[in-house]
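Can anyone check this?
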Amino acid sequence: MGYIPQEVLGNLKKYQYKGVDHSIVSRYILNPFWNWFVTLWPLWVAPNTITLTGLSLVLFNFATLIYYDPGYLTDNEGAPGPPQWVYFTWAASLFMYQTLDSIDGKQARRTGMAGPLGEMFDHGCDALNTTLEVILASRALNLGRSWWTVASQAATLANFYLTTWEEYHTGTLYLGVFSGPVEGILMIVAIYLISGIYGPTVWDTGFLSFTRLDRIPAIANAVPEMGLNDAFMVFGGFGLAFNIITSYMNVYRSRKASGGARYYPLLYLLPFPITVAIQVFWLSYPTFSESSILYSPLFVPFLCAWGLQFAHAVGRMILAHVTKQEFPWWDSMWIWSIVGAVDANLPRLIGRAPLIQSTPQNTRWFIYLSLAVSILSYARFVVLVISDITNYLGIACLTVRKKDERGVWRSGMLEKKILY
């Protein structure tokens, strides 16, 4: 069973990408650089290959975390983190990821390969990068296994969900004056650089003392002291609130212009807080206990499974947008998470021991099984969607080729005049 019904395949040929970028940094600094950088790529390189190259750099960063900081994935979380020079490689790789993620669309237009597959491929890679960067940035901020890291995961995924929800209802991808793909990534790059210079413990420095605001009695008495990393999380919360408001205003104006319901789209946000509540419920028992998943080596695999389930859900939202299908309210991976969350909380719910996660060893097996199921589920989604789109449109995924009316593969860039 595929993800694109036969009756909506025709909508793939009607799809046209629409984007609005209000970022000053992007418009006046990064975009001129991107316009130059894309010219260095040969026209025989497919845009999706560029996108995949960018994701591979992030995967490399994650691999270095596992290799140089095994304590983060074992019981020895208090062990020294990765060597400080590793953070510089994270900064360089993330900046290159942003660059490659920004020029893949330009390469698509250069080669005549722009279309719905590129939209799906690009956003799919972005969805995977979101969780990986949460894990890496939380390590660089010295947050470790904590509820702050959980909050960071929820907030970052929320921003991605908002953007996808907004595009589904408006037909346009909006990047505001401060957006995750531009300013957000640059901030994380800065975090990596600072951790590379001073070490991640620098983020434990008190915010008020660092900014010298503690010398002002009114502020010192009204604002509690918190670490720079905690202050950054609070700042992220305000950023999320701002994005919620701006995203809804864009949807409101779009629905008003089209004569559609202006408040009904808010219901389409409900799936996200429900899924977050399920994951938090799973993590919450036993609360504040060292035996819980939150404070164990299972925390990173848990976040990865959560991120893959999220990628599957937003992938279906993006697919619904490009094929003009109904909004996907339900995702099958919820069942797995609900089972895990209810089972872990059986002592709280009915006063009996968990049926599945009854011992630390069983919990370990179940979390890693959850990760494996999440990987397989998302991989199945990717393979089936790519297969359906490439077969129907007669295009290749990772090469610049198209089928002509006789079914003969030809270079995509030869079929139309390149306008760039």
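Reply from J.R.: I decoded it. The two ends are 39 Å apart (CA to CA).
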